[in-house]
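Action item from last meeting closed. Structure (483 res):
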């Protein structure tokens, strides 16, 4: 009868995995977010006749049709140190998931030992004896995941892996936008340098003309001083712009994982500021929930926090394990594996902490509070994503209007310079009008160059806010299917 009871209990323990299909703790459900059905602003329009952008945003920088910009971004995605660290964190998370998954299966260990012992003489034995004991065998253990705590741990580790991958994707979005913004700023600075040098040349010519007129008695010393002051002021802007351009190249080198001077030879030659030649695939506000990596990461972190509630709750219940051992021992190494020297053991065990001063329940409350925090963080991330997209949208639209106005201002100021110079040369106007016209022209041209840069960088910010720059074709298809 005792043997039957033992076998029955062992059989029941071996059948426990068959009844562990459910895991305690809350199942993760993707939170619902209420977002508007349409954008508040209108997307910026492309030049007439420009091609439409593709519906996915995987390579939005190609709308600028600049091979050098594309090359910089692609190289940055390979060499950027932050991205390489993110890749390391993904490998860490994947290894942690493997560790968690290993807990679901049994563990088997082997051991072997040799013990040499000395027995002293006694009243019954007159001689000191020395003997050897050889041992070799296996031992195994298996925790039966009856209440699903281990499986919840695997689930949490998988969600951690998802979060690490989305962190990398978020870095890709930020990196591509930062490289593009710095590149556009560099080309704008080079354009502003060209404008400053052109205006300086014109202003120096005016100063020379004024000095000649002064020598001939047709201009005052005040006119000469004013002309020279204007030229000197413009000349003083050039070193500042040159320094900013050099610093921008240094920033781009760092983004590509290189030393400050790594891109000097490549980027120092002037190149026109690229402009986008495509429309923006805005989609719907709800698309951000599927597309933006920071939102996807927030969901993964919420998933992990929810699963860890199950891990903590499982600690309230008993843990069942099956352990066993098989081995051989003998004083003679040649007879070590004889059946006479074999030993074995197998049996179930139960471990259930009955009193721990409330530690387990406090840990459960802790995990619930963490899950609540992650839920609030998700909601905040969604709201911030909507704000960024709407802000980038209105900025792009209004800056284009500003650029058009500045282009008109430049045209009007050029006309004013020509008229003021002609009237002054004919003696029909004061020299101050010429200086004011030249000063206004330089200010307007510089403002137009900055506005053109801002139009492009605002477009970059819009693509970033929409979560573009990390998707593969497979990812884009999955977004489109809503999975």
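Sequence:
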């Amino acid at each position: 009868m005792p043997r039957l009871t033992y076998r029955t209990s062992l059989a029941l323990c071996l059948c426990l995995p068959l009844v562990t299909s459910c895991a305690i703790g809350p199942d993760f459900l993707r939170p619902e977010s209420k977002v508007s059905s349409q954008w508040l602003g209108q997307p910026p329009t492309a030049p007439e006749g420009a091609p439409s952008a593709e519906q996915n945003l995987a390579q939005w920088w190609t709308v600028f049709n600049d091979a050098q910009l594309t090359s910089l971004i692609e190289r940055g995605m390979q060499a950027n140190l932050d991205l390489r660290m993110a890749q390391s964190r993904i490998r860490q998370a994947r290894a942690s998931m493997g560790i968690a998954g290993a807990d679901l299966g049994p563990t088997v260990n082997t051991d072997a030992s040799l013990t040499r012992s000395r027995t002293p003489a006694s009243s019954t034995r007159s001689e000191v004896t020395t003997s050897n004991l050889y041992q070799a065998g296996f031992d195994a253990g298996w925790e039966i995941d009856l209440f699903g705590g281990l499986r919840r741990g695997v689930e949490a580790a998988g969600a951690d892996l998802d979060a690490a991958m989305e962190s990398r994707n978020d870095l890709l979005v930020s990196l591509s936008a930062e490289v593009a913004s710095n590149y556009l700023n560099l080309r704008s600075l080079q354009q502003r340098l060209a404008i400053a040098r052109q205006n300086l040349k014109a202003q120096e010519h005016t100063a020379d003309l004024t000095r000649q007129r002064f020598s001939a008695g047709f201009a005052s010393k005040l006119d000469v001083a004013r002309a020279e002051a204007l030229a000197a002021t413009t000349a003083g802007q050039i070193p500042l712009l040159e320094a900013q351009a050099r610093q921008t190249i240094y920033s781009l080198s760092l983004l590509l994982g290189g030393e400050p001077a790594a891109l000097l030879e490549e980027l120092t030659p002037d190149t026109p500021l690229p402009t986008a030649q495509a429309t923006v695939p805005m989609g719907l506000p709800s698309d951000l929930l599927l597309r933006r990596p920071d939102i996807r990461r927030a969901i993964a972190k919420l998933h992990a926090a929810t699963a860890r509630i199950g891990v903590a709750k499982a600690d309230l219940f008993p843990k069942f394990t099956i352990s066993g051992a098989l081995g051989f021992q003998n004083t003679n190494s040649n007879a070590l594996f004889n059946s006479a020297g074999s030993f074995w053991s197998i049996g179930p065990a139960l471990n259930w902490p009955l009193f721990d001063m409330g530690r387990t329940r406090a840990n459960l409350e802790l995990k619930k509070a963490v899950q609540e925090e992650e839920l609030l963080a998700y909601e905040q991330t969604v709201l911030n994503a909507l704000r960024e997209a709407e802000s980038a949208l209105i900025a792009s639209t209004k800056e284009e209007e500003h650029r058009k106005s500045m282009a008109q201002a430049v045209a009007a100021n050029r006309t004013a310079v020509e008229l003021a110079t002609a009237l002054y040369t004919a003696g029909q106007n004061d020299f101050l009008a010429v200086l004011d016209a030249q000063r206004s022209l330089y200010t307007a041209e510089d403002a137009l160059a900055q506005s053109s840069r801002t139009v492009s960088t605002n477009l970059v910010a819009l693509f970033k806010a929409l979560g573009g720059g990390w998707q593969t074709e497979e990812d884009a298809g999955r977004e489109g299917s809503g999975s």
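Note appended to the action item: The longest strand covers residues 129-144.
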